[in-house]
Please model this.
Amino acid sequence: MLMSEKKFITIMGIDPGLAVTGYGILRSDGREHQLIDAHYLKTNTKQSHFDRLHYIFIEINGLMERYQPTEVAIENQFVSQNVKSAISVAEARTVAVLAASINKINIFSYAPTEIKESVTGYGRADKQQVYDMVAMLVDLNSATLKYDTTDAIAIALTRISEWRYINA
Model:
């Protein structure tokens, strides 16, 4: 395949949370990954619950408009013993999915164990193992990133791996 015929994809990975939502935007041909942007959105705990969700929506929507990802990959909700926390994460996830839907971006959802398996080869890997593998797969420019951010990059890498398999 000629270089000009290479297929590329731009994926936005999202690790949703009410307190902190991580995001990572990657451009990839399936083998080499370029980190476009990665960071996290931290909400103000002194604001109302709804204002915090609004902030997440506005920021995620703005990133989607700016970077025009081809697809969005987001972590599935996991079952939690803390119902209040689980609901807050689900609401943050919903506003991110809504932003992708409004921007007409295809959405792919992955379970935490599926993401860990895809990136590390072990579905019960801890956050540091995921962080270390992300750092090996993507040039993080020696930045020290929060786990929320590297988790979002791992989510994007999971979709890229699946995309590569489909487009092989």
Summary: The two ends are 12 Å apart (CA to CA). The helical segments are 49-67, 83-102, 112-120, 127-137, 147-166.
